[in-house]
Amino acid sequence: MKSPRSASICTDENTIPEKWRIASPIDQRQYLCDGTIREWTGPLQDVRSPVCEVICGTVQRKLIGRYPLLSEEPVSEVLHAACRAYDSGRGAWPTMSVEERIRHVEAFAYRMKEERDEVVRLLMWEIGKALPDAEKEFDRTVDYIRDTIDALKDLDRLSSRFVIHQGVIGQIRRAPLGVVLCMGPFNYPLNETFTTLIPALIMGNPVIFKPPKLGVLLHQPLLKAFRDCFPRGVISTVYGKGQKIISPLMKSGGIDVLAFIGSSRVADILKKQHPKPHRLRCVLGLEAKNAGIVLKDADPDQAVKECVQGALSFNGQRCTALKILFVHREIVDAFLASFGKAVGELKAGMPWETGVQITPLPEPDKTEYLTELIDDAIAGGARVVNPGGGSVDHTFMSPAIVYPVERGMRLYSEEQFGPVIPVASFSDIEEPMNYIIQSDYGQQVSLFGSDPEAIADLIDPLVNQVCRVNINSQCQRGPDTFPFTGRKDSAEGTLSVSDALRVFTIRTLVAAKETDANRRIIKSIVTERRSRFLSTDFIL
Ligand code: G3H
After folding, report:
1. Ligand 1, atom nearest to 140 Cα
2. Which of 243, 269, 285 is the last residue of a domain?
3. What is the predicted pLDDT for the residue at 8?
4. Could you tell me the residue range of the domain that residue 443 belongs to?
5. 3-state DSSP assignment of residue 421
6. How confident is the model at residue 346 (pLDDT cuts 50, 70, 90)?
7. I need a labelling partner for 41 at 20 to 30 A (CA). Which of 9, 127, 463, 495 fits?
8. In this predicted model, what pLDDT tens digit does every residue of 197-254 receive, in sequence order?
9. Ligand 1: does its nearest atom lie under 6 Å from the Cβ of 477?
């Protein structure tokens, strides 16, 4: 592997393809409130890229822009605008027909596509995501919107009929819940924010969204499209320090649904701040420490390939990343040799460089934190088994394979969320099984092996511990039509394309005893199209 050096961490502007350069910092002073883009004249937060430059002989993260640090006042206005848009369920948006809401979202998707290059450029600069992954994040998000629209049409078609049972006529649909606060994570700042924001919106809920701390500027190119495509107050943005702006929102009691992807520590604080805990719905994507279990009859090449991808795509900064590997003792030496070789072949560099897989890390002090984890494991008797593994150059860290990792070491239980791969060996399958049972997390697991009987014996207990068992493949969220969730401290609620439509709504029905008078009323409402809820209109 190319060892990251100062020469590469401090990129020469002229080597960056012109299309992806940032000539001068982007001053974002705007936020979206009540259908207008407002200018913020208060303090701003500097945005520094994980990509560095040399200034007066010192290496520094490049300043690429600024965004508003809103105070409580504008945030309270945003909340009032969202509450007005909902108007206790009487607003134009929550009462609009599904077909019309779909048209608004389609218009937004059309406008969003025009901003692809700008969003991709900022994904690379703000969070260091490699170009193909940044493009994939954008395209996957547009596909997600299209799939959401299709899923909603299906859902609506199923509800466009009456059911008659035990002398009662009913029509059952899904109705919105109220104002939704959406907060996504820095590793998928666009995609994971939109996988809650879009379903919440399309189902009739006004949305306030706060971009993650890292990955803010990339939302700016979409502000005008949001303003133009939705009625006022239906979508708003807030920026700033969580404690200053999110806590007052939660404490106000005006938030009906919290859609948050981040740490369980922050989720717990936010939930507790809401004055009506039973009224607040939560959709949460939290920590994970997914294990890969490599059995002794695993296809070595396939296991290595999937474990490299699973542990190191986007430098291991995925909630679904393989964050610990358990390898059978009889094959662990051979596995480590080929795993180390494959990791050594990964190319490190700048996000826009062709074929690059290891890029600078955006979180402040991240390399220091990861180094602490490695040092802790070394102090406990483990070592870094790949040459150059764990070496740091400012925001770069060469991936480190750490072996043997055992209970008691921080890497055994802490979610590292970076390019460090702890490996443990086992001779009895009960060892990795107990690890998963005792873990605080329960998102996914990967099993590598070839004996159907041995794999079947593991599947049955594991599906009751995690929410996806992957056979001979890395852990992942996609395809987005599959359910994505977790047990224990890993998640609350399920987020597939169709499940997301459900979590932001509640089943509501209109029912009447089957009398002639009631039949006449219902018939008149339906034929005269007097209600958008009580309706047999079928979306074609
Ligand atoms: O960070 C967590 C993401 O949901 C993972 O998605 O498996 O598609 O990378 P992914």
Report:
1. 8
2. 285
3. 62
4. 290-483
5. strand
6. very high
7. 127
8. 999 999 999 999 999 999 999 999 999 999 999 999 999 999 999 999 999 999 999 9
9. yes
Ligand 1: distance of its center to the CA of 467 in Å? Answer: 14
CATH, residue 464: 3.40.309.10
476 C-alpha vs ligand 1 centroid, how far in Å? 6
Task: Let me know: does 235 contact 201? Beta carbons within 8 Å.
Answer: yes
Instruction: Note if the bond before 479 is cis, omega within 30 degrees.
Output: yes
d(CA 445, CA 431): 14
Gap between the Cα atoms of 368 and 496, Å rounded: 36
Tell me, yes or no, whether 256 and 338 share the same domain. Answer: no
How many angstroms separate the alpha carbon of residue 301 from the centre of ligand 1? Answer: 24
Banded pLDDT at 292 (limits 50, 70, 90): very high
CB-based contact 412:378 (threshold 8 Å): no
Q: Rounded to whole angstroms, how far apart are CA atoms 403 and 406?
A: 9
Closest alpha carbon to 152 in 130, 176, 129, 131: 176
Residues 335 and 434 in one domain: yes
Residues 158, 300 within the same domain: no
Q: Are residues 454 and 343 in the same domain?
A: yes
Q: Is the CB–ligand 1 distance for residue 444 below 6 Å?
A: no
Q: Please work out whether the CB of residue 381 comes within 6 Å of at least one atom of ligand 1.
A: no
Domain tally, the chain: 2
Per the model's pLDDT, the better-predicted residue between 5 and 336 turns out to be 336
Residue with tokens 């480190």: 400
Same domain for 295 and 231 = no
pLDDT at position 3 over 80: no
Where does a domain end: 285, 302, 332?
Answer: 285
What DSSP line would sit under 451-508, residue for residue? -HHHHHHHHHHHTTTSSEEEESS-----STTS----EETTEES--SHHHHHHHTEEEE
For the question of whether the overall pTM of this predicted structure is more than 0.90, the answer is yes
* Geometric angle at alpha carbon 107, from 80 and 26, rounded to 5°: 70
H-only helix segments in 207-285:
223-229, 242-252, 264-273
Smallest CA separation from ligand 1 atom 7, residue: 476
Percent of the chain with pLDDT strictly greater than 70:
98
Within 10 angstroms of residue 252's Cβ, the number of other Cβ atoms is 17
